[in-house]
Amino acid sequence: MTNPTAAMLVIGDEILSGRTRDANMHYLAGELTKIGIDLKEVRVVSDDRDAIVDAVRALSGAYDHLFTSGGIGPTHDDITADCVAAAFDVPIDVRDDARAILQAHYDKAGTDLNAARLRMARIPEGAMLIENPISAAPGFSMGNTHVMAGVPAIFQAMVASVLPGLTGGAPLLSQTIRINRSEGDIAGPLGALAQQFPDLSIGSYPFQKDGIYGANIVIRGTDGAQVDAAMTQLAGLFPE
Amino acid sequence: MTNPTAAMLVIGDEILSGRTRDANMHYLAGELTKIGIDLKEVRVVSDDRDAIVDAVRALSGAYDHLFTSGGIGPTHDDITADCVAAAFDVPIDVRDDARAILQAHYDKAGTDLNAARLRMARIPEGAMLIENPISAAPGFSMGNTHVMAGVPAIFQAMVASVLPGLTGGAPLLSQTIRINRSEGDIAGPLGALAQQFPDLSIGSYPFQKDGIYGANIVIRGTDGAQVDAAMTQLAGLFPE
User: CB-based contact (8 Å) between A209 and chain B?
Assistant: First the structure.
């Protein structure tokens, strides 16, 4: 049985211009790995309607889940919700349940729910709201597409709301060994090991530190006994 | 006149599993912005032949330049060069110029140029080598696609070799103002400003710090006078 698959779509000019360093990809990747959903692809696109609609269609069609980050705030460049509605070909408007959440939040703060803030209650028809415990404005799940905020603290809280509801697979187990030999010396035996264990993913991550060349070899798989066997064999090939 | 466009393809299971945090995207984005090449899209895919070939074809076809990072080392999971050759439909083999570079490097170090290391001299027919001042094994430019190492120090050195040879556009100028009002209060006037200056990109990046809600507003464009005019007008709308 293979694990469910996922893609991520990061939306925002600020990442592509180099102004902001994305933090959400790394976070989501780690959380999905824990519950056995395989993140297969990430795309980063700008705040451009066609680019977002095309990417949502392609990725939600190709994978079991799509997670998006960014573009759901109150300003003119926040167009993700409208683009997701367009990609799924459903209408979008201010929805009563989302408006009620915002109204309660801003009433409590003594702040006006003005037209800009009300944009955050625009939810595609048929979508399920995702709770935002930090700043109230909800995300939503439309079909297999989970639409979340770009601000890392809010993104992480929304991921925590969404993931428990998804069916995971076998969690990916991994073991790492550090070998103080240059990657060119490790590569031959490592390739043979990879052929011997076709169900495992064996990665080599070279480093150079204080004049020592070496590599961290990571063996990943869902069958713990196989991971153990491969690691034991590898350690025997390169004794300290 | 519009600026040249670019895409980036990050190759590596270790990013998608959450083991490693990608650093090359942020670096490349900043360097391209400086020379007026617009980074339009980034994709991250795993060490999978079909995924890499499809992404190289799609991105090299859609943008003026494609930059790739990762998968050009000596181990079995380093398949980027072969995938780029397949995407461009050209043969690939060990090339004499690349072999000579490796031979000289390993002779000097007293290390054997074994079969695994020799894989790093596999270069698609017609490609131009990219210098690697750190560990010798070259990258290459095949058509509009620039293939570079994933190790950040080597990636950055290769970017420094490639970019001076490319034709840039008008560098993107940007000004930032911090407004200590919540984004929902800023959004209305900001939208009107964006409509008044259609050639500028106006982004809003909210923050919350020590109980204060605010946003950094970034105005970007290639016409400095327009950026100045929009910033002056914005500052007047929200005096301290």
Answer: no
Backbone phi and psi for residue A139, each to the nearest 5 degrees, phi listed first: -90, -170
Segment 88-107 of chain B within 8 Å of chain A by CB = none
The Cα B214–Cα B183 span in angstroms is 6
Domain boundaries, given as residue ranges, for chain A: 5-165, 173-237
Domain B173-237 annotated CATH 3.40.190.10: no
Confidence of residue B1 (pLDDT cuts 50, 70, 90): low
Work out the average pLDDT over B187-210. 89
Q: How far apart are the first and last CA of chain A?
A: 37
Which one of A5, A15, A25, A26 would you mutate to disrupt binding with B, by most B Cβ within 10 Å of its Cβ?
A25
Amino acid code (one letter) for B116 = A
Gap between the Cα atoms of B59 and B8, Å rounded: 8
- Tens-digit pLDDT profile for residues A54-68: 999 999 999 999 999
Q: Does A32 touch chain B if contact means CB atoms closer than 8 Å? A: yes
Q: Which helix (H) or strand (E) holds A57?
A: helix A49-62
Q: Does A44 touch chain B (CB under 8 A)?
A: yes
Residues of chain B contacting A76 with CB distance shorter than 8 Å:
187, 190-191, 194-195, 202
pLDDT per position as a tens digit, A207-230: 777 777 888 899 988 899 999 999
Contact B70, B10 (CB under 8 A): yes
Structural domain B5-165, CATH architecture: 3-Layer(aba) Sandwich (3.40)
CB atoms A40 and B201 under 8 Å: no
| The residue to which tokens 């004499």 are assigned | B96
Using the predicted structure, report yes or no on whether residue B104 has a pLDDT greater than 70. Answer: yes
Written as one letter, the residue type at B42 is V
H or E segment at A87?
Answer: helix A80-88
DSSP string, B112-130: ---HHHHGGGEEETTPEEE
Task: Tell me the nearest-neighbour CA distance from A201 into chain B, angstroms.
Answer: 9
A98-140 pLDDT, tens digit per residue, is 999 999 999 998 999 999 999 999 999 999 999 998 889 999 9
Q: How many angstroms separate the CA atoms of B84 and B147, rounded?
A: 8
Residues in chain B: 240
C-alpha B233/C-alpha B219 separation (Å) is: 12
Residue carrying the six token digits 């609609």: A53
> Judged by CB atoms within 8 Å, which residues 123-182 of A form the interface with B?
135, 151, 172, 174, 182
